[in-house]
Write a structure and sequence with these properties.
The chain is mainly beta. It has helices at 2-21, 50-61, 64-67; strands at 72-81, 88-98, 101-108, 112-118, 123-125, 153-156, 163-169, 175-181, 187-194, 197-209, 212-224, 227-240. It has a single domain, classed as outer membrane lipoprotein receptor (LolB), chain A. A hairpin with a 2-residue loop joins β11 (212-224) and β12 (227-240). It is globular and about 55 Å long.
Length: 253
């Protein structure tokens, strides 16, 4: 049972690390102190519409620099929490994203080690009996890049405290709820549901790297029938727009 739970943790870790990377087209986080993204500030008012909130969020992520990232590498540590457990399993993670391709390695010995590769068409994972991940472009931050495309809708969700909310839905009905800071428009958290399972991401600290806000400390939550599983990530090294060999995204033999 423990191994099955940790496999679920590893899969979800990959889903949300990749979602947070926004397909190597940008990132976001919550910051305790203001940071400039290099994009013009967008004023949010009580009358701001959902689409205006989405545009403000996109600008806060870095605007054109957010959109035009060619590659992203994140390396750091992770603490995994199984459902109903207060004891974490420490490990390391490394993620490489370039366009629609990504690779993620999670190593938390002796409990779990996991590798996930997506070459833009096919998905590989090193765990047996784990189904392929859904397309990362159907949830999370990548949706911010598509809000003006045909078939995508942006609607209101209830605000909470000092956060403004909006929902982005793709042509297939997949949606993500975003909550942004009412002053800075930075994305503080987002949530999506798939097959009755709820996934949530919260960014806690960021740094600006080459005009893009990069989450250096973030967490995710996975609501399962066994309870809520958590993971906490700390990024120690970031590289943007570096050349990435095709071999990185080749599935192991």
């Amino acid at each position: 049972m423990k191994n099955r739970v940790m496999k679920s943790l590893a899969v979800s870790a990959i889903i949300f690390c990749f979602a947070l990377s926004a397909l190597a087209q940008g990132e976001n986080s919550k910051s305790a102190t203001p940071a400039s993204s290099g994009s013009p500030a967008t004023t949010i008012t009580a009358a701001s519409t959902p689409i205006e909130l989405a545009h403000a969020a996109l600008a806060a992520q870095g605007g054109e620099k957010f959109k035009n990232l060619k590659s992203l590498v994140l390396i750091g540590s992770v603490n995994l929490y199984a459902p109903n457990s207060t004891q974490s399993v420490p490990g390391q993670f490394a993620m490489v994203v370039a366009g629609e391709r990504f690779r993620m390695d999670v190593n938390a010995p002796p409990v779990i080690s996991f590798k996930q590769v997506y070459d833009g068409h096919n998905s590989y994972n090193s765990l047996p009996n784990v189904p392929p991940l859904p397309s990362p472009s159907t949830f999370g931050l990548p949706l911010l890049l598509k809000v003006d495309q045909p078939g995508y809708t942006v609607t209101a969700v209830p605000d909470k405290k000092k956060q403004r909310g909006f929902k982005v839905t793709d042509p297939d009905g997949n949606s993500t709820d975003f909550y942004i800071d009412a002053t800075t428009a930075q994305v503080l958290n987002y949530t999506t549901q798939r097959n009755g399972v709820t996934f949530a991401v919260e960014a806690k600290k960021f740094k600006e790297v080459e005009g893009v806000l990069v989450a250096y400390n973030f967490s995710w939550r996975l609501e399962m029938t066994q309870g809520a599983a958590f993971a906490e990530y700390t990024v120690k090294d970031v590289k943007l727009n570096q050349p990435v060999s095709d071999d990185v995204f080749a599935a192991p033999n």
